[in-house]
Queue: 4 jobs
Job 1
Amino acid sequence: MKAARFYEVVKPLKIEDVEVPKIGPKEGLVKVRACGLCHTDLHFLEGVLKPGKTPIILGHEVAGEVVDLGEEVRGLQRGDRVIIYLYFTCGGCYYCQTGRESLCTNLSGHLGFTVDGGYAEYVKAPARNLFKIPNGLSFDESAVLVDAVATPFHAVKGVAQVRLGETVVVYGAGGLGIYAVQIEAKRGESHRHRHS
């Protein structure tokens, strides 16, 4: 398969032929249909951040189609349209049990950071990290949900605990800020329709 691999800072990614990942009994293989370009990927290229290994295939905002499943996987089938949750967590530690999976003490991988990501034709991930895309959403729309949309959603709803009807100010209108504005506008619109 073709993949864009990161080797060193201020050098372009190298397009190379690499083997299609082999999956284990609890993993899925996904044919990548869309992968977002996150500013974090640019930080790797600029040397602001370091990935967990090199060379590595970057890309953690992945949407695609399931093409193979390990023998222990249930609830998914070939052909399912999915997004991939980027933290490969244990699901059982204190942080996973309290909704703070990004702090998992048994993290087995971080898509595009420590394990190969979605700038490739195929990517593998634990099946528990594959979430079906609802009908009506494209691969392009879905790819950014897992990070660029989930991050501001968590910030305004989970961390800041913004309640419906409150006024919100978003400082910084980059990608995440724009999504924060859209999320809160949609929540406010939904609230007004229910009470009119």
Job 2
Amino acid sequence: MIVLAIAGGSFGLYVHNYLGGATGNTSPELWTVVTGLVGALIGLIATPFFTLRPARAMRNMVLQIPASTLLASMVGLIVGLTAATLLSFPLGMLPSPFSQVLPVLGAVIFCWLSIYIFVMRQRDIFSLFRGRLPTRLAAEGTGTANEGRSVLLDTSVIIDGRIADVARTGFISGTILVPRFVLHELQHIADSAEPLRRNRGRRGLEVLNELQKDLPSVVRFTDIDAAGVREVDDKLVVLAKQLNCAIITNDYNLNHVAQLQGVSVLNINELANAVKAVMLPGERLEVKIIQAGKEAGQGIGYLDDGTMIVVDDGLRHVNEKVNAVVTKIFQTTAGRMIFARLENNNK
């Protein structure tokens, strides 16, 4: 800022000297001071537009780029410059003006092409050096850690808690990434004045603690952020696109928003529905009737996996275990619903 202020003041003095005698009867010394101060003021005002704002924009852009992408870009640049240097010798032997233009043009083309190729194929390239690179590079950019793609955890799926059981089974083959902004949201929820919300936040922190203790080589916390994006869900989508990884969530809205933007989503609720026992019409089951259904005479019960069983004429057996026969099965967005009748009922 001081340098630009001095430059502005010098420019003001230059303008005064250039105007020369256009000051009229006014003292030349006064005009010298005025033009110098005006130039310095203009320099101070213009400083952020030429220094701070470009530097801040460059910083935000660099922070959004994964470390693996930066490394792939640098390697591509080195390869491009090497190829351009080797090609410059035969091109320099051509007649003028080709000997001056083609080496520069070749350097630009080879550098751009090499950077493009290395960034686009970074996942395949880093997989060749798996085990020789830092774990963070593999987790954040390549998705090759633990023989699978990396996945991002949403706040809702952490609070849900089932992700800990799923991770222990080994069905998640890649690295589990927990962004810092998700951790901060959990801390904010855990500090809430509302008891229910506070308990949910603390439950999420406990789940993360369990995951980190049980699976230290699988769970990673990452500082990569999506600059310029405020909402946590939006940050997750942007980050998933940058890292080329999937999002694990049970949030209905985040699920659809991410899919619309081409981001892979692993929904815990869909996984739970998929692994429920398959039942066919005519099969027998034992269920405890716990409440009345919507229709007259219906009784409602649940299997161990949470599947709802609607039993015709089961209302009179509330709080009793009955044998029933499956009649129909409906798949809804909320899960599977099974209709049955009492086994000794001939209807």
Job 3
Amino acid sequence: MSGESAFIDSIRALAHHRAARNLFDDAAVLEIGAETLVLTHDMMVEGVHFLPSQPREDVAWKLVASNLSDLAAKGAQPLGVLLGYMLGDDDEDFSAGLFDVLEHYSVPLLGGDTVSGGPPQAFGLTAIGLATHSPVPSRGGARPGDALWVTGELGAAMLGFEALRDGTGGDTSSYSRPMARLPEGLALAPLVTAMMDISDGLLLDAWRLAEASHASLAIDSAAVPIAAPEARRIDALRWGDDYELLFTWPAGTEPPVPATRIGTVEPRGFAPLFLDGEPIANRDGLGYEH
């Protein structure tokens, strides 16, 4: 067993509760009486998800925003978060950043745990949301004939990372302090056929959506809005951390939020993904995987 996908496959049999969605989705969807909770958990590790030199205020912001992005992809209203925190030299800075991001999204801290350890430091966060529409959107509902859409632009996080890494003084906000598309997710949830956020790169996440939907996605790379120079277009499609929403939608209608149509859903062929008409039958190199 080696790598993220192999490990997830090895524990899939443990996820037998229907809320787990067989580990093919962004979050767990737990029905309790008349209400449905959406639960998600993400981790960040120093040197993997953020640079050791990054201010811990920004690390706290990104930890929360990346988890809330999973709730956005489910059209869920955040109820609160649980923090797993590894103590370090910048605890006050992290605390200040946590205050800023939770205040921004009006989300309470419900509890969590603290440990010592590192370096490197590692943090985890569980976000809890309340579904606003049933059925809760999944990766698995795309239908042949649907259109494929994306919110925002891709590649700004890539440029922000490079500016931060190289100390060029460029805008780093898209990488350091991403924004969860919560209002867009709430508006889209009752209407989409499938939806997920883009955290590991458009191409890899489109592959995952296609696999979950047992369909093929045909993407027109020139149609994808990017914030990077044109020469970096393919890089922007493979880079993660954009936290935009990727969704499928009945053809011939317009979504209620600003978004760009970038492709179509087709019956499942021999490859789950087609880029500019060329089949992609192997997910290796499409985006970020541990």
Job 4
Amino acid sequence: MKSYNRVLIDPDALVHNYRYLKKSVGADVRFMAMVKSDAYGHCLRGVARVLENSGCTVFGVAEVAEGVALRDSGCAGEIFVFLGFEPEDIDCFFSHTLTPVVFTFEDLTLISEAQRRRGITLPVYLKFDCGMSRLGFSPNEAAEVFARCRSLSVEAVGIMSHFPCSDNLHSNNSEQVADLFYRIVRPSEDVKPLARSICNSGGLLYQTASHGELVRVGISLYGYYPDGKAGRKGDAGEGLRPAMRCVTRIIQVKTVAAGSGISYGHTYITDRETKLAILPIGYSDGLHRSLSNRAEVLIRGRRAPIRGRICMNMCMADISAVEEAEVGDEVVVLGSQGTETIDADQIGEWSDTISYEVLCALGNNNQRDFLS
């Protein structure tokens, strides 16, 4: 049985975005597709399959379980795990050929012990915190980190960091962070050079001098710019294409009198006779309650405002200006209908958040289908 609410993923948009972004990096720079958090709500296995069929060979996930699921789905590419691991899960790196991103001395020790048990060397990347105040060794610890790797026989093949402000073209923070990151060197000349990776979507698009040997691309793969509408206004020609569309249906139409309160708390009172469409989508489906009395949906190619508080499984749209609307009509929550478009940047503005959160919320809470 199908839900009223469906999230439709366009594989052609994913492929277009991958190829468009890939052109921005040199032939000797590897490209990692970030498919963590169920591919930003677009479906981990489905997105990885589409991108791998288009030539992508490197993927990034947050947790070990995601890496295992991706490998078990048939993905043959290199899979990086960014959020560390529980000690009992360490064998998964060996059994499923996963690459750990390491940010603690304790995990270096655990990897060394696991290597001895298995008689296999596990290549790792080291994470350094160069200004995010998040995961990572301090750059001041670099000499100690590399010394510990040598003493533990842990093979560090690369280093990583992360830009905190690469979506802000008016900030010089990225240049400062890049300068600090690229000063990190292994104090030995008898080993292979380290692969360096710091660029997220903003880094790839706006910090072209910092691409290093591996870029890690997330939000832009799914058709959105890290700086929102500003990025889309600045693209030239083909640009990025949003890959997600979210639709529902009208399940009841009713007319209420002037002075009627709508939904919980009566936060909206009609000032005239009003025709309402009842929609079976609410905050449990990823349509955040903060969108109450702010958001719009598309019905028959026209915008219809949400009236009253969004409920757990329902909301109400004012269709007084869409007289011909009827039960069963498709309603677009995210995407295009006719000449109108509501994208994740606009929904983000209505709810005081960003496209990333909108995509994850809608994608992870509704039935998803890949268009053929």
